[in-house]
Design brief:
Layout: E1 2-6, H1 9-15, E2 21-27, H2 30-33, H3 39-49, E3 63-69, H4 75-81, E4 90-93, H5 97-106, E5 112-114, E6 116-126, E7 129-134, H6 150-153, H7 180-191
Parallel strand pairs: 2-3, 2-4, 4-5
Antiparallel strand pairs: 1-6, 6-7
This protein binds iron/sulfur cluster (SF4) (2 copies).
Length: about 220
Amino acid sequence: MIVADQKPLAEIAASLAGFSRVLVLGCGGCVTVCRAGGDAEAHDLARDLTHPQHYTDGAQAPEFTVATIERQCENDLLKAFLTLPPDTDAILSMACGVGVQMVADVFDPLPVLPALSTTFMGGADEPGHWREKCKGCGDCLLTLTAGICPIATCAKSLLNGPCGGSQGGFCEVGTENPCAWTRIYVRLEKQGRLDLLDEFRAPRDWRPAGFAGPRQRQRKGVL
Ligand code: SF4
Ligand code: SF4
């Protein structure tokens, strides 16, 4: 899932300068699960943003309304289920960066502002604790790396083994993180597949990772 964090309140309040009627829009998808931008957080944020401490030099808090939609990342859901309250002059989206952009496209040219910063695609190793697992590289190599992604979980995204700085199984960069290549080696050893490390992997073509512009995918059978 996509993990996101709420921006500092002062930064959000500053982004609302000059607007008088703001819709705080929660999203029922990933950001609800990680408790960053769901319906409860949307109500909490609208309440917190009314506090005068966030507004100086005679500025006043906008009037807030709150709504939540099942997913902000789908054009048809936004069009079918979201009606803006009268005189809304800005939307504060609590979705990931995808949702913010979809809302901005649907309600163009209404200003749509992000309340969150999208951080990573991750899995919950324990309830409420997500770790980054995938960078959406477009050419998955987990077959060769025992189901452990060296692009997302090695600090240097190395493809041909460890950098040499691994200390006691931990990464030399983020020392609280296990070294991805130590994990890969240990798991491949348990699987009896260490031979997979013999083959040199040439530098990658990063275009499928998004370096040739935004990627698209059309579901089969959809015209
Ligand atoms: S190899 Fe690419 S697609 Fe596979 S998990 Fe890593 S980043 Fe994601
Ligand atoms: S110590 Fe391991 S995880 Fe850290 S950068 Fe080096 S190879 Fe990657």
